[in-house]
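Re: the 320-residue chain
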Amino acid sequence: MAYSAKQQTLRGSPLVDGVINSLPTRDWQTGKSLTESLNHILTNEVGSDVTFLVGTNGKKIPAHKLILTSRSPVFFAMFNGPMAETGDVKLPDITEQAFTPFLTYMYTDQIALTVQTVVPVFNVARKYCVDVLVTVCYNFLQTNLSPANACFLLEQSHAYTEDQLMAACLKVIGESPEKIIKSESFVDLCPSCLTCITRSDELGMDESHVYKAVMNWAEKECIRKKIKKTGANKRVVLGNILYTIRFPIMSQDFFLDKVCTDKILTSDEIVDILMFIRKKSTALVTSFNTGCRRGKHGHHGGTYGANMSRAFRGKTSFYE
């Protein structure tokens, strides 16, 4: 036990030593702020009265109904009234990595967000109508969304059905496509997210670069599926993604020298597209898009935060 300077001076007196030795030991509450105390009872499971079974493995995370009901109308309805839940609460669709920082915020108003965790936490905050945390996540995304993480956040927003965030990510990708399509995160996209990018009219780059990027993705998908990287197999893994590539607006040289040699198209498709490129036909028999993309090359400075604002423009509630 630490003693004050005055106590140290008086030590040696039997009376003083007796008083000092009879002082109670230091309790965990001593010297803590309200936030620190609430964090302590959460992290040390002090007096918890509800247990969440989180994730597919049912990780047990204890909490306190009073704290939760004071922060969330959903939890208030869940734990109060004639239909109140009893027993453990199962949350198989929420990960521990998302629920733990969410709970910490509920107790302390503090959270350490990262690009990897912000969308899952955002999703939990929306689910339980914790509007202040939704705003915190939104502000983080507005500040941190960039070409470096746009594909990752696109994939995350797709997984959690966050359509407004998806729109913001696609806007960033459309403004800096050359850099993004060469990233490792691009070839790791799911087919749905890849389609969102390649079908966009706002993708500001030459179609030959779009084709090369999609072929890189197809090669990686063949590896993931453990099949040979042949033209036929690439076509199989691409499926309808192939029809988002605008072959008819490519240069004739690139189409002949690269596309035709990759053996990704059928003979009929090649003839049909060549006739269109050489302007000997005004319409295609096949289903490829002939429209030029409207996007402009390069990044327009200072637009990433604005993309988030545009994505959520017109919303009257974070829960729409």
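The first helix runs from residue 5 to 10.
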